[in-house]
Amino acid sequence: MTRRKSSAALAAAALVLSLSACGGTQTVEEACQIAGEKTRAIMGDLGSVNAADPAAAESELASMADQLDGIADGLTNKEVKDAIAGVADSFEDLGEALGGLTDQSGDLADVQKTMETVNQISDDMVEKGAAIEKLCG
């Protein structure tokens, strides 16, 4: 059950990245183009996230979050910059939630609580992806 929900969360993350592939005085369109080119490169890494290994998933998602933060830092358009940074925050949150599974004693209630958190983060990622799609559409 945990593996399926973790896989669902990663699928949601893939959706967010695909939606965020839209990419000073930078226009929204220019920022979306720049972000899109770089986020597509990150998408290739998403398939390597192993939800069956929570510690590894946490590390990989943190790395992706760092890359997304780097993309956001390189943008001057505030709207797109903030949107990409928000997705990066969700990646970090998802990684931490999945990584937390390694700290649990196997208590079903703890695992269920973590999976509820993962589902909430996944929903948040989908919302953020939809906002980017609206912005960069």
What does this structure look like?
With 137 residues, the protein is mostly helical. The chain is elongated, with a radius of gyration of 15 Å. Helix content is 79%, strand content 0%.
Quote the distance from N terminus to C terminus. 35 Å
Structural class: mainly alpha
Share in helix: over 70%
In sequence order, what are the helices and strands, one letter per element? HHHHH
Based on CA inertia axes, which overall geometry fits? Answer: elongated
Low-pLDDT ranges: 15-23
Number of helices: 5
What composes the largest sheet?
none
Mean pLDDT: 80
> Per DSSP, what share of the residues sits in E-state strands of 2 or more residues?
under 5%
Rg of Cα set: 15 Å
Instruction: Find the count of extended strands (DSSP E, 2+ residues).
Output: 0
In short:
This protein is an all-alpha fold and 137 residues long. It has 5 helices and no strands.
